[in-house]
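Long-time lurker. I teach an intro course on protein structure, and each term I like to show students one example going from raw sequence to a predicted 3D structure in token notation. This year I'd like something fresh instead of my usual example. Would anyone be willing to generate the tokens for the chain below so I can use it in lecture? Attribution to the forum is fine with me.
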Amino acid sequence: MKFIDEATITVQSGDGGRGCLSFRREKFIPRGGPDGGDGGKGGDVVLVTTHRKRTLQQFQFKRQFKAANGGHGQGAQKTGRNGADLIIEIPPGTLILNADDGTLIKDIAAPDERYVIARGGRGGLGNTRFKSSTNRAPRYAQPGESGITLKVKLELKLLADVGIIGLPNAGKSTLVGAISAARPKTASYPFTTLNPHLGVVRTDWAEPFVVADIPGLIDGAHLGAGLGHRFLKHIERTRILVHLIDTDGIDPDRPLAALDTINRELALYKPSLRDRTQLIVLNKLDLPGADQKAEGFRKALPDMDILSISAQTGDGLETLKSKLTQLLDDE
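-- Reply from a regular --
Happy to contribute to a lecture. Here you go:
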């Protein structure tokens, strides 16, 4: 299934039913009083978050949504039926923005949360409501109130405990597949991963946690270069960032180049990301010459806690999971 993380839709709540203009007419009561009933309320458009939805795929082709109108009032003081609410299911972590000016309407992060994006119009009052001592036979009933039409933009930001970041081909997808049941596509060339992937990591000693494989970022990503800020936004909701370094690609003269590039892009996109808890992990320790390059990297950051793993062979993965569990517990 294609990953859709943005969609623009138009929602319209139901119109209220019109009030009824009616008079009681029965045998032996030729000139009865007013008996027009009220119109029913129009249906609301309600957004509901559910884990059944993981993307905004459903909005790729259907973008117009309208709730039911309220029924009209009838004689004998019968009130029109209320219009049925329209329920639209979306994944947790969805931002609701005004499509015209980009202002934030609502950030729905929790599952099973309900938000009325457009309220239905009120039903009009029947002529019975306007009867008074000076007007015993009112010949007026209210029309129903029109529903609201709103154009909104939906943006999905993945909800994950741990975000795995790094340059293209650092082994992020391989790592997610090695520590969870997720099976993202992997290959030995950059930009294999075009969509974020979520995986649940289970251990025997702690609560499960969710990791997100964020597609590779490059210099200038905050301006949209490469896969750009389309995926940087998914990092915002993660509690911990795992900065995965391709040990085989470390330049002995500039061992921190990859780390500096990603940290710079994070800070330029959103300065607060610079202060997010970050764990540096050196990957591909199974390749020839990797130990020497890893040693040079460690010397450049002597005060940092740096882990070494091989996502391909599984070396160091239990230590990594234990460290992530510890960091999450300390958050």
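Some talking points for your students: The longest strand covers residues 149-156. The first helix runs from residue 172 to 179.
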